[in-house]
Amino acid sequence: MFVKHSESDQLFTLYYGLNNVFFHDILIMFVPPKLLVLLFWGIFIYDRQIIYPTSLDGFFLPWANHAMHTLVLPILLGEVMLEQHIYPKTRNGLAALSVVGFLYSSWVIWVYMSVGIWVYPLLGLFSTTGLIVFFVSHICVVIMLYFLGQTLNFKIWGKHR
User: Fold this and answer.
1) pLDDT per residue over 83-92, tens digit each?
2) Number of folded domains in the chain?
3) At CA 19, angle to CA 13 and CA 24, rounded to 5?
4) Cα angle: 127, vertex 131, 135; to 5 degrees
5) How far apart are the C-alpha atoms of 19 and 22, rounded to whole Å?
6) What DSSP letter does each residue of 66-117 carry, written as one string?
7) Which of 95, 123, 129, 154 lies 20 to 30 Å from 84, alpha-carbon distance?
8) Predicted model pTM
9) pLDDT per residue over 2-26, tens digit each?
10) Domain span at residue 114?
């Protein structure tokens, strides 16, 4: 109302671009939830007791577990099919994803260093070398998921630059 039309268009464009990069494509809607599904079910299949002990069955019913760790995947794939996202340049997208990943990993390590308890008890099972391998492989999976999301978006909606 108090902003010139061209300035409000620029603000909207900036908002839409930041919203696409930070909230939909990279940080919330595609990579982390899919990483959650892959890690949870991969570890669950390997050894259920590490990630979801049978003692939790009384607290979390099977449908609640699937709502948190399975239902996410088809919802997110549906979101990719229903809404086109404008991906940033690959370098910029991976840089933003790296910053968030680094901050989150730093927080996980900081909690352990401060309190002596791992946020994810699974991490306590690893040696120092195992932790390094885990975090490096985690980075590789995150990068692959980023490219998967970008590829799916481009296959469904076509390239948009």
Assistant:
1) 777 777 888 8
2) 1
3) 140
4) 170
5) 5
6) HHHHTTHHHHHHHHHHHS------HHHHHHHHHHHHHHHHHHHHHHHHHHS-
7) 95
8) 0.73
9) 444 455 667 667 666 666 665 555 5
10) 5-157
